[in-house]
């Protein structure tokens, strides 16, 4: 059964919380109309979505987050470059591994189904960044994704085009190490 997706919402990409935080925030300024992300998937379910795309660079975490947001569903792509974001191919990995083995990428998909939120995270594939310049970034991706709550698997294919890259608006900081605690032993 094909289900068109009418809405997208994605936020911070943070390892295992990649999809859990997907609906938390929206960028302050809307992306230009020409900045688009389009995706479709096949497998245990089929569907498609299309929407305005944003791209935020987090310098402290060295991650470029490309996402489309509209309502409560969405697609997010995180690129972890070795040095700087360049036109290149980035292997898609599980989110928990993508940031520790640059260059790499992670991809997530989320939508509201009839009775539950469906969330999927990547385990393999590729993101090809075709251009990365002052006019924005353009690229395509194919990712094998699996459900975060079951055994369902999908192949997610998509494109993004003319997406301007801006500094991350919020939440762009490495996790602080925990404060030492007094053990009570002198």
Protein architecture, described:
With 186 residues, the protein is mostly beta strands. The protein has one domain. It is 2% helix and 52% strand. An eight-stranded antiparallel beta barrel has the order 2-3-4-5-7-8-9-10. The longest helix is centred in the middle third of the chain and has 4 residues, at 95-98. The model is unreliable at 1-28 (pLDDT under 50).
Widest sheet: strand ordering: 2-3-4-5-7-8-9-10
Tertiary shape? globular
Mean pLDDT across the residues is 80
- Based on secondary structure, the structural category is mainly beta
Order of helices and strands: EEEEEEHEEEEE
User: Got a strand count?
Assistant: 11
**Uncertain residue segments:** 1-28
Helix content: under 10%
- Largest beta-sheet details: 8 strands, antiparallel, barrel
Domain module count: 1
**N- to C-terminal separation?**
66 Å
Strand content: over 45%
Helix count, DSSP H or I runs of 4 or more residues: 1
Radius of gyration: 17 Å
């Amino acid at each position: 059964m094909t289900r068109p997706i009418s809405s997208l919402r994605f936020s911070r990409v943070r390892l295992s919380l990649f999809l859990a935080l997907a609906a938390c925030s929206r960028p302050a300024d809307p992306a230009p109309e020409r900045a688009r992300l389009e995706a479709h998937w096949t497998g245990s379910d089929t569907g498609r979505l299309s929407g305005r795309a944003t791209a935020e660079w987090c310098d402290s975490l060295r991650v470029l987050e490309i996402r489309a947001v509209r309502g409560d569903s969405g697609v997010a792509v995180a690129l972890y470059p070795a040095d700087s974001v360049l036109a290149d191919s980035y292997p898609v990995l599980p989110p928990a591994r993508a940031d520790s083995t640059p260059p790499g990428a992670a991809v997530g998909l989320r939508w509201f189904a009839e009775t539950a939120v469906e969330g999927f995270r990547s385990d393999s594939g590729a993101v090809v960044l075709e251009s990365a310049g002052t006019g924005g970034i353009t690229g395509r991706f194919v990712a094998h994704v699996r459900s975060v709550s079951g055994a369902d698997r999908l192949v997610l294919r998509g494109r993004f085009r003319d997406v301007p890259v801006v500094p991350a608006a919020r939440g762009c900081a490495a996790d602080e190490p925990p404060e030492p605690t007094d053990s009570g032993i002198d």
